TrEMBL record:
<dbReference type="Pfam" id="PF01590">
    <property type="entry name" value="GAF"/>
</dbReference>
<keyword id="KW-1133">Transmembrane helix</keyword>
<dbReference type="InterPro" id="IPR003018">
    <property type="entry name" value="GAF"/>
</dbReference>
<keyword id="KW-0812">Transmembrane</keyword>
<keyword id="KW-0902">Two-component regulatory system</keyword>
<dbReference type="Pfam" id="PF02518">
    <property type="entry name" value="HATPase_c"/>
</dbReference>
<keyword id="KW-0067">ATP-binding</keyword>
<dbReference type="InterPro" id="IPR000014">
    <property type="entry name" value="PAS"/>
</dbReference>
<feature type="domain" description="Histidine kinase">
    <location>
        <begin position="847"/>
        <end position="929"/>
    </location>
</feature>
<keyword id="KW-0418">Kinase</keyword>
<keyword id="KW-0808">Transferase</keyword>
<protein>
    <recommendedName>
        <fullName>histidine kinase</fullName>
        <ecNumber>2.7.13.3</ecNumber>
    </recommendedName>
</protein>
<dbReference type="InterPro" id="IPR013655">
    <property type="entry name" value="PAS_fold_3"/>
</dbReference>
<keyword id="KW-0597">Phosphoprotein</keyword>
<dbReference type="InterPro" id="IPR029016">
    <property type="entry name" value="GAF-like_dom_sf"/>
</dbReference>
<dbReference type="InterPro" id="IPR035965">
    <property type="entry name" value="PAS-like_dom_sf"/>
</dbReference>
<dbReference type="InterPro" id="IPR011712">
    <property type="entry name" value="Sig_transdc_His_kin_sub3_dim/P"/>
</dbReference>
Length: 934
């Protein structure tokens, strides 16, 4: 191997070969007596590291002190966060005790199974929350919260024992619980008193202020419950004291809370319960509150409970804000600690890296020469030493550069073999004879690898041929596309499904074949695929070559490193069409099952047909005289298009219905298709579909016929239901007419005859000269019996059909019933000035009359309230009594007749009659009445 000129020069020059010891230079006289300094005896790398060590040590000390201080801050914030969690658990105990207090007060005021059960439930809930709070307080080491909670539990137990004996009044019970509540609130305030930051302090102040405000509202609720439970004449004078405390606490809450909770508090105060509570406070604040303005016991409990629950909802949000603030402060402290630590370590790292870089720039030549020597000893001839110094290491560097020539030759052989692989020239082999030793062995191994690769390539080609057959024979749509938006390869199923040749599919962007309404979703799915996300069961609509739509369900897997997407699709057009038809059928059947009006059912059938076929649709009934009545229509096109083609469609529809009536099968004429509706072998009607824009697709007749067969039963049920409703309405109307006729006959016949007999009898009495005679007494007796018979006849006529109902309307008739009732009746009538339909007035009158009779005979009620008003185009009638309750329509009572009468005119009657709690009837009668037109 020929050496370079520089190598020749070095071999004959002043530098010795590598490995020989350089001659020691003679010391000069000036240095002969000097000793070598300490730093001169150190290696260069150690000197540089010693220079960096001093500032690095100082920075490490600063970092350590900073980390200790920030760790202490984080521990303080962590303790505060733990304290807030314990305070939240204690707050739950406070809420539970407040609920137990009001339950105990209510059970003392009005003892009964319900109130006693509510008190027991509240006590169990308090025990559960107290147990959870005790478990949570075990994690707080600062104070004996567990001991305090245990003492409060024993105190609660003592209060419950005294309450259970009945020896305490309601006010005393509330006071006993108040002591426990105050201890709990003091505990919460002590837990949240840490306040390591300003934000945490404000959030804690807001939370505690709202807790105290809720406690004031609870105290007010209990005291007013005691007040309102007393008889009206023995109610003591009360002073509004808790409202002022509550307002003070709410004012502090507003000063410290967020704008959002401040707005929610404002909204809560102006909701219905808040207004009701404020009205009660205003009433109690008067110097002489009138008893009529005082709320009822139940109303006050309901309003105050709703308002307190709203405040508790805001309390929960305030607690969450406090928890979020504590967590945010803790996270911020930890983040600052980590940030400072990372910053310090980064600076240390940078300084260290710079020191190492400087050390490396000095020691690298030495290391490079040493590594080159080791590589040469290990036989690694590819190592290149770039050092070009004029010392002993330069000789070694020249030797390595000469070895690169041999390396290049070897690389050329390897490149030629790689080129042969790329050109599929798998028979190429390297020239092993021109190399010796290790190089020859390496090239021989590469020749063996080439032979193995040739065998594997043959097997791969066979597998590709097999895959090609599967790709072309698959019934599903298979394709390979690029992220550039073009198909790279499609199988024949693509051509069969979409109708385009393969050249067209590959030449155009595949978004061109997607329906316009689905392009945005398809592009979004393609972006996800391009980002490497797999896609499964994605559906979109594609346009065939003939312009029709087809639904495809895709599954795709991207290969981002190759820029390709492998996808498979399945044509789900028919399955989606079947699913749509089944869904439409379910909607129609559900509508019929819910008792919808026939007009709504038929309109829905027409709408479903129009949506399924994308046409105009109608449902028509075939009358016995051969005419047809339109029951429901649906337009699927603009009004202008419908109007322009209406006459042509009517003619085509008429001819289609004639053909369908003749063949009893779906028939199409022009742009219209008609399918017969056959019910019990009788031609009931038709479903007609028409398109004003163009001819209907193939298969429309069969699709319409199949759907019509499915909905025929639903149409028949709707028809039968409508006929039954109309029949019931006619029966009720006929009965009312008979009542009016009988009442009129009694008034014009029998009553007039009795009046004439009374006049004749009075004349006979006037003709008797001796009023003490037996004849005079007999005439007086007959006259009295005739008067009694006349009054009985008036009652019978009024019971058959009251004349005041026909003359004055529902309002005067109900007032007449109230005056004649044996129990007091409270009327609240919000009826309009104009008369209501007669069927509504009659039904409302008889329902009220029957209820008043039942309240006297069976319920033994003390008072009955009747409310009537027009709401949402309907007459709503509510009748309540405070009787024994327990009325059930299913036991054959008169309520069954009332329900039949109300439902016959399209109304609804609901009965609520818990035993011992009175009876409430709610009647809703629509002003429009039931539909009788099918």
């Amino acid at each position: 191997m020929r050496r370079s000129p520089r190598a020749e020069r070095l071999s004959h020059g002043r530098r010795p070969p590598f490995g020989r010891q350089r001659p020691t230079a003679a010391k000069s006289p000036s240095r002969r007596g000097n000793r070598t300094p300490f730093l001169a005896r150190l290696r260069v790398g150690r000197k540089l590291m010693l220079l960096v060590l001093l500032p690095v040590t100082g920075m490490l000390a600063f970092t350590a002190f900073s980390a200790i201080a920030q760790g202490q801050e984080a521990r303080t914030l962590g303790r505060f966060r733990t304290a807030t969690e314990v305070s939240f658990a204690t707050t739950e105990v406070s809420d539970a005790v407040a609920r137990e207090r009001i339950a105990a007060v209510l059970a003392r005021l009005r003892p009964g199974p319900v109130t006693l059960a509510e008190r027991s439930t509240a006590e169990r809930a308090t025990d559960r929350t107290l147990g959870r709070a005790t478990d949570r307080a075990a994690s707080w080491p600062q104070s004996d919260i567990v001991g305090k909670l245990d003492a409060l539990g024993r105190q609660l137990h003592a209060t419950r024992v005294q309450t259970g004996t009945g020896s305490l009044t309601a006010a005393t019970i509330a006071q006993q619980y108040q002591t426990t509540e105050e201890d709990l609130l003091d505990t919460v305030a002590a837990l949240e008193a840490g306040r390591p930051t300003r934000a945490a302090g404000r959030a804690a102040d807001a939370h505690i202020a709202l807790l105290k405000a809720i406690e004031a509202a609870e105290r007010e609720r209990a005291e007013l419950a005691v007040l309102l439970a007393a008889p009206a004449g023995r109610r003591p004078t009360v002073a509004v004291r808790w409202s002022a405390l509550e307002e003070a606490q709410l004012r502090e809450f507003r000063q410290n809370t967020s704008d959002r909770l401040r707005a929610e508090l404002y909204a809560t105060q102006f909701e219905a319960p808040g207004r009701a509570v404020r009205k009660v406070r205003d009433t109690l604040a008067e110097s002489d509150p009138r008893a009529a303005h005082w709320p009822s016991y139940d109303r006050w409990l309901a309003d105050s409970k709703a308002r307190i629950e709203s405040l508790r909802g805001i309390q929960d949000q305030a607690a969450r804000e406090l928890a979020v603030t504590a967590a945010h402060d803790l996270d911020s402290a930890r983040t600052r600690a980590v940030r400072d630590l990372v910053g310090s370590l980064t600076v240390l790292g940078v300084v260290t890296v710079l020191a190492l870089a400087l050390r490396r720039s000095i020691t690298r030549p030495l290391s490079e020469v040493s590594a080159g020597a080791r590589a040469l000893s290990d036989g690694d001839l590819s190592y290149d030493i770039r050092y070009a110094g004029r010392d002993e290491l330069g000789d070694v560097a020249d030797t390595f550069r000469e070895l690169r020539v041999t390396t290049e030759r070897l690389a050329a052989e390897i490149r030629s073999m790689n080129a042969a692989i790329d050109d599929n020239r798998l028979g190429h082999r390297a020239d092993v004879a021109s190399f010796d030793g290790t190089w020859a062995q390496l090239l021989g191994g590469m020749n063996g690898t080439m032979a193995s690769f040739a065998a594997a390539h043959g097997r791969r080609r066979k597998a590709e041929h097999e895959l090609e057959g599967i790709f072309n024979l698959s019934l599903d749509l298979l394709c390979i596309s690029g992220v550039d938006g073009y198909f790279k390869r499609v199988n024949p199923a693509f051509e069969r499904t979409l109708g385009y040749p393969a050249e067209t599919l590959l030449a155009r962007p595949y978004i061109d074949f997607v329906h316009e309404e689905d392009r945005a979703g398809t592009l979004s799915a393609l972006e996800r695929l391009a980002s490497g996300v797999e896609l499964a069961e994605f559906e979109n609509r594609c346009l065939r070559e003939d312009g029709t739509e087809c639904w495809l369900q895709w599954s795709a897997r991207p290969v981002p490193e190759e820029g390709l997407i492998y996808a498979a699709a399945r044509d789900v057009t028919e399955s989606r069409r079947t699913a749509r038809e089944q869904a439409a059928l379910r909607r129609v059947a559900t509508l019929v099952a819910h008792g919808a009006p026939p007009s709504e059912v038929f309109a829905t059938v027409a709408q479903e047909v129009g949506q399924l076929l994308n046409t105009t649709a109608a449902v028509l009934r075939h009358e016995p005289d051969g005419s047809r009545t339109v029951l429901g229509t649906a337009q699927g096109f603009p009004e202008e298009v419908e109007r322009r083609t209406r006459q042509a469609r009517r003619e085509a529809g008429r001819r289609a219905m004639q053909e369908a009536a003749r063949t009893r099968r779906a028939a199409g004429v022009g742009r219209s298709v008609a399918a017969p509706i056959v019910v019990e072998d009788r031609l009931w009607g038709f479903v007609v579909a028409a398109s004003p824009l163009g001819p209907l697709p193939d298969g429309t007749e069969s699709r319409l016929g199949d759907f019509t067969e499915l909905v025929a039963t639903a149409i028949a049920n709707a028809d039968s239901r409508a006929q039954l409703t109309a029949s019931r309405a006619r029966v009720v109307a006929a009965g009312d007419a008979s009542r009016r006729r009988i009442e009129r006959d009694l008034h014009d016949g029998v009553q007039q005859r009795l009046v004439a007999l009374q006049l004749d009898l009075r004349l006979a009495e006037s003709m008797v000269t001796d009023p003490t005679s037996e004849l005079a007494e007999q005439l007086a007796h007959v006259s009295k019996g005739l008067d009694d018979a006349f009054q009985d006849l008036l009652q019978v006529a009024r019971g058959i059909h009251p004349a005041i109902l026909s003359k004055g309307g529902l309002g005067p008739a109900l007032r007449s019933l109230a005056r004649r009732s044996a129990v007091p009746v409270e009327l609240d009538l919000g009826l309009p000035g104009p008369r209501l339909p007669e069927r509504l007035e009659v039904a409302a009158y008889y329902v009220t009359s029957e209820c008043l009779t039942n309240a006297v005979k069976h319920a033994h009620a003390r008072v009955v309230s009747v409310e009537a008003a027009i709401r949402d185009d309907a007459l709503e009638l509510t009748i309540r009594d405070d009787g024994t309750g327990g009325a059930e329509p299913g036991r054959g009572s008169g309520l069954i007749g009332l329900i039949d009468r109300v439902e016959a005119i399209g109304g609804k009657l609901d009965v609520s009659s818990p035993p011992g709690e009175g009876t409430t009837l709610h009647v809703r009668l629509p002003l429009s009445g039931p539909s009788t037109d099918v």
